[in-house]
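Bug #77: duplicate submission created two jobs. Keeping one. Sequence:
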Amino acid sequence: MALICPKCLSDMAEVEHESVKVDICPGCRGLWLDKGELAELRGAMEDLPAAPDSIGAGDHYLEATTYICPRCSGSFDTFEFSPGTGLYIDRCQDCQGIYLDAGELAKIKNLGGRRKLLGVQTYAEPQNKLREALATERKPRLWSKPPSNKKGSGAGVYFFQLLTGLPVEVDAPRARFPIVTVALLLANLAVFLFSLHGVASPSAFIDQYAFVPARFFSGDDVTGLFTSLFLHGGWLHLLGNMYFLWVFGDNVEDRLKLSQFVIFYLFCGLAAALIHGVLTDQPLVPTIGASGAISGIMGAYLVLYPRRRMYQVFWFIQFKISVAFYLIFWLGLQVVYSGFHIGGVAWFAHIGGFVVGAAGIWLLNRAGMVRPDPFATEATKAS
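Kept job's structure:
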């Protein structure tokens, strides 16, 4: 299985240079070197000079604190390669493997040692083939969002997470503008504003168009199953749902035809509402919100992108977690909350929507209706 680049989280490709096998990231061009490989490449006895100086501050250090070792999932220490050079090297505390940014191997070579180079200036044949394949597969497209090479999450993202506790994608490239996701965002906002300012009684409007299980199963009102998907009870309810729709929706939309994504979204929402209606012990309580449909999108995202990463903040510390861990943990919380019968939230709609979305996208993929990931590397496809 391919290693995951600690900087941009792309799958790395193993290449051989002068009998030394290293792993190169096709996205940011970073290099992963197992213990002893840097020493072999630079013609020295050890990877780093004797007793290198470690650093505990600065932009490079702060970025490296978010890295996860691709070999053993350990944390990194940051060292100055030689005093006064300003060349900082990141080494895993556990397996002693080393991660180098693009061009850093060339800088190390210039500091002395044997002339072995695998930077952006010199490529052996395997690297040339990889470079050409990437240039062909990753041509810029209209409205595309390419992989980011930015360092760290930035102060704005950190403080946003500190205040809200919400996850942020580390890097989630897409090949086209998410027109359906944006349309759904605007539709939900428009209906919410209309419910506040366009009707005489907002509460009566909500009651009329909400999904009430007892009314639905008695046949008195079946339209609420659909209309409830666009209703929200307040700004926090709306903004929370729309945030998760934006985070996960654009990339799921990227893998489906526009019409398929619309149908998929609505199907998840309708199925989630029905599951809630069957399992709830309060069939007379109106249910509103897009969270069932969005839970379906989250389930689909888990199936399509389990190895992507997200930033999370806990106790003022920002770190990266896998999408798979975050979404499975989120689903577990929904199950726990539903078991304790915590009111005010349609937990069964969340659970049902998530399961329906995950199963639905799996079936669509099996049927060949899901587009290949345009940003997947050959290593990803092979694994």
